[in-house]
């Protein structure tokens, strides 16, 4: 059974169909990329699966169970985490605190405990801070452990978002353009990080415009065009598909 299965998924905004009858399945442990021209429906597809939008039609299943209609916080509790195309960082917090926010579902706290600061709560906060530090080191942010988020460069903030998503201990991680705006060195670092995450058992679904990165890292690729599924397959199959070459990659990639 696939970890994620999408069948006949559609989304209309007024009279415009942004996603039209899209279906695919993602096996556990893969890096699965979604590509297509601007306006192809990639981020809309992410928003449908992660509960930000409700579909007009179709089915979404996680581990064989329907997740249509589940809000993002419920999906997070089921093991679904994501990053966003535009940075969603709390700049008035420290880098470590940003990562700690991602683990809020594991906290055992209520108003009374928070008011009187029970020892169990302090131990939980300490453990969470330690875990956040470990995740920052894991994504290569060792030098920013004591930094405010506002003092970090853009490339480091992209990795901070990934650390925060990992703090929720997901089994399915959606990354929306993680290499956007990065230089070649930073892109190579994100490439290696994504593969390391997948190798440790977290399934990654990726939207990305850097075709070199996509072709290097992806186990499977879904190609969207005008909200419709154009092609699906391995990097080699997609690269050789004439419809993909014509619609997106360009002849120089064939």
Question: Care to give the gist of this entry?
Answer:
The protein has 10 helices and 10 strands.
Can you walk me through this structure?
By secondary structure, the protein is α/β, with parallel strands linked by helices. The chain has a domain at 1-75 and 208-254: P-loop containing nucleotide triphosphate hydrolases (Rossmann fold). Helices cover 38% and strands 23% of the residues. The protein contains ten helices and ten strands. It has helices spanning 42-49, 72-77, 95-101, 111-116, 119-138, 154-166, 184-199, 211-217, 235-240, 242-249; strands at 4-13, 16-26, 31-35, 57-62, 65-66, 80-82, 172-176, 203-207, 220-225, 228-233. The strands form two sheets. A six-stranded mixed sheet has the order 6-7-8-3-9-10, with helices on both faces. Strand 1 (4-13) and strand 2 (16-26) form a beta hairpin. 38% of the residues are buried.
Overall mean pLDDT stands at 89
Low-confidence segments, ≥5 residues, pLDDT <50?
A: 106-116
Reading off the top of the CATH hierarchy, the class of the domain at 1-75 and 208-254 is best stated as: Alpha Beta
Shape: globular
Q: Please report the distance between the alpha carbons of the first and last residues.
A: 33 Å
Question: What is the helix tally?
Answer: 10
Element string (H = helix, E = strand): EEEHEEHEHHHHEHEHEEHH
Question: What is the topology, as strand order, of the major beta sheet?
Answer: 6-7-8-3-9-10
Biggest sheet layout: 6 strands, mixed
What's the CATH H-level homologous superfamily of the domain at 1-75 and 208-254? P-loop containing nucleotide triphosphate hydrolases
**Strand-residue proportion:** 15-25%
Helix content: 25-40%
Helix and strand composition category = alpha/beta
Radius of gyration from the alpha-carbon trace, in angstroms:
19 Å
- Briefly note the CATH topology name of the domain at 1-75 and 208-254: Rossmann fold
For the secondary structure, the number of strands is 10
């Amino acid at each position: 059974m696939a970890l994620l299965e999408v069948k006949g998924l559609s989304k209309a905004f007024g009279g415009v169909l942004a996603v039209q009858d899209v279906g695919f399945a993602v096996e556990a442990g893969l890096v699965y990329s979604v590509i297509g021209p601007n306006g192809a429906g990639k981020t809309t597809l992410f928003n449908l699966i992660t509960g930000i939008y409700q579909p007009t039609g179709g089915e979404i299943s996680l581990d064989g169970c329907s997740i249509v209609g589940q809000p993002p916080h419920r999906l997070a509790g089921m093991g679904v985490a994501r990053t966003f195309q535009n940075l969603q960082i709390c700049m008035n917090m420290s880098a470590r605190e940003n990562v700690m926010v991602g683990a809020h579902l594991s906290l055992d706290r209520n108003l009374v405990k928070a008011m009187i600061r029970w020892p169990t709560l302090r131990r939980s906060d300490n453990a969470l801070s330690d875990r956040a530090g470990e995740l920052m080191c894991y994504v290569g942010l060792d030098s920013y452990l004591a930094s405010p988020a506002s003092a970090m460069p853009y490339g480091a903030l992209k990795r901070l978002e990934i650390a925060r998503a990992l703090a929720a201990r997901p089994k399915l991680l959606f990354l929306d353009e993680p290499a956007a705006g990065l230089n070649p060195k930073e892109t190579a670092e994100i490439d290696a990080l994504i593969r390391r995450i997948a190798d440790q058992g977290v399934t990654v679904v990726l939207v990305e415009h850097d075709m070199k990165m996509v072709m290097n890292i992806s186990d499977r690729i879904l190609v969207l065009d005008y909200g419709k599924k154009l092609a699906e397959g391995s990097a080699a199959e997609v690269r050789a598909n004439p419809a993909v070459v014509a619609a997106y990659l360009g002849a120089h990639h064939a």
